[in-house]
């Protein structure tokens, strides 16, 4: 009995030591090996229900009048069915643990959620029919937060983007834009915020100044890797067109070809429509000029600033001409804005204004900042004075 008591006295501590050693090896030294398996499991659990929910909510719009599923949604179905296999095989490098104790890795370089070309006529038709509360509810399910903020739930996005849209009296365009661009950006697994910078009535529209205001106000809301400056009437036709951040020193011209110009490539010097800059590069060139009131030439001035600072304007087609078919844009019909009659004369003096015209002398009155379910709205009053018109 004495011997048995001694055995029991040593056996319990020994078992505890063995268990503690096993736990330590598994959870610390074995973490890199086990994290890959846990990430893929989490990805399947989080992403697939969201995709299935997205498809269920879209069931009615997917069926045409003759009972056939449209080609665009047949492509989506194929992507969705393949996603089950893709997500279980994703290999990621860096990992982190969020506040909900979910282990996450970087999102893949090419998102498995992409569907390719989209029939814009279907999008426009569905946008007219779908009630706003239905769309905002659907986006909320997909993870969109108040203020138009989104980040993937299953992985860490490789790009943190601020989307800046200058705006005034384009309610119909904005409705279509938001209903198209939110799913578009989410399929690319981007972390992003949509900022609508609205100019109040009074002065002529100043696109460049609104871009500068959006840049400054966005940085007050948080930090971003890059900014995409985007007209509200342009929609990318193919979600393989990357809205990721460019490299430093290489701003990206994104509106390569537009339907109203028969998809002919825009000139090399064109930097309008849609363009992407890192924070470093946009700060370096002092942003847009603030002096172009009315339509035209602020993008030409921007191009000259970029070249002057030895930055290289890039296009996705530079190394792969075959990509020309995926960087097409559709322009929503609109009334042409009144052009600035003095824009050419103003453009001629671009070099003399580099330091003192742009972010450095930006002046505006902020009327309000409103966080809506789909975007952050910044309404400003800007007035054309003698200092800002010549």
Q: Could you characterize what this model shows?
A:
The structure is a single chain. The protein is of the alpha/beta class and 390 residues long. 39% of the residues lie in helices and 15% in strands. It has helices at 2-29, 31-57, 59-62, 71-87, 120-129, 132-142, 171-187, 207-221, 279-284, 298-308, 343-348; strands spanning 95-97, 103-105, 149-150, 160-167, 191-199, 226-230, 234-236, 252-253, 257-258, 274-278, 328-331, 365-371, 376-381. Strands 3, 4, 5, 6, 8, 10, 12 and 13 form an 8-stranded mixed β-sheet that branches. β1 (95-97) and β2 (103-105) form a beta hairpin. α2 packs antiparallel against α4 and α5 crosses α7 (171-187). It is globular.
What secondary-structure arrangement, pairings included, does this model have?
Elements lengths: L1 H28 L1 H27 L1 H4 L8 H17 L7 E3 L5 E3 L14 H10 L2 H11 L6 E2 L9 E8 L3 H17 L3 E9 L7 H15 L4 E5 L3 E3 L15 E2 L3 E2 L15 E5 H6 L13 H11 L19 E4 L11 H6 L16 E7 L4 E6 L9
Parallel strand pairs: 4-5, 4-6, 5-13, 9-11
Antiparallel strand pairs: 1-2, 3-5, 6-10, 7-11, 8-10, 12-13
Helix pairs in contact: 2-4, 5-7
Question: What are the salient characteristics of this protein?
Answer:
11 helices; alpha/beta; globular; 13 strands; 8-stranded mixed β-sheet; single chain; 390 residues
């Amino acid at each position: 009995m004495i011997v048995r008591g001694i055995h029991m006295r040593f056996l319990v501590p020994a078992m505890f030591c063995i268990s503690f050693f096993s736990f330590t090896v598994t959870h610390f030294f074995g973490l890199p090996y086990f994290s890959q398996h846990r990430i893929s499991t989490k990805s399947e659990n989080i992403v697939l229900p969201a995709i299935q929910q997205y498809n269920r909510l879209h069931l009615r719009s997917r069926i045409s009048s003759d009972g056939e599923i449209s080609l665009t949604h047949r492509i989506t179905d194929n992507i969705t069915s393949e996603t089950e296999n893709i997500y279980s095989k994703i290999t990621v490098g860096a990992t982190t643990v969020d506040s909900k104790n979910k282990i996450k890795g970087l999102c893949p370089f090419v998102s498995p959620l992409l569907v390719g070309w989209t029939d814009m006529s279907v999008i426009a038709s569905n946008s007219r029919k779908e009630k706003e509360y239905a769309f905002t509810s659907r986006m909320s399910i997909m993870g969109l937060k108040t203020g138009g903020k989104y980040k993937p739930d299953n992985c860490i996005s490789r790009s943190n983007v601020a989307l800046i849209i200058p705006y005034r009296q384009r309610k119909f365009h904005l409705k279509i834009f938001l209903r198209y661009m939110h799913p578009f950006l989410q399929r690319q697994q981007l972390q992003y915020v949509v900022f609508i910078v609205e100019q109040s009535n009074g002065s002529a529209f100043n696109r460049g100044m609104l871009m500068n205001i959006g840049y400054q106000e966005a940085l007050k809301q948080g930090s971003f890797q890059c900014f995409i400056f985007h007209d509200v009437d342009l929609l990318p036709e193919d979600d393989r067109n990357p809205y990721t951040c460019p490299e430093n020193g290489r701003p990206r011209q994104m509106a390569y070809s537009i339907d109203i110009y028969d998809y002919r490539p825009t000139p090399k010097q064109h930097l309008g429509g849609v363009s992407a800059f890192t924070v470093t590069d946009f700060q370096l060139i002092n942003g847009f000029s603030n002096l172009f009131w009315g339509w035209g030439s602020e993008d030409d001035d921007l191009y000259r600033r970029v070249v002057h600072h030895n930055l290289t304007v890039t296009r996705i087609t530079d190394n792969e001409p075959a990509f020309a078919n995926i960087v097409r844009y559709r322009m929503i019909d609109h009334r042409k804005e009144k052009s600035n009659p003095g824009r050419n004369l103003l453009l001629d003096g671009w070099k003399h204004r580099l330091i003192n015209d742009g972010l450095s002398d930006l002046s505006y009155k902020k009327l309000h900042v409103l966080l809506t379910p789909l975007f952050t709205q910044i309404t400003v009053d800007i007035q054309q004075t003698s200092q800002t018109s010549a």
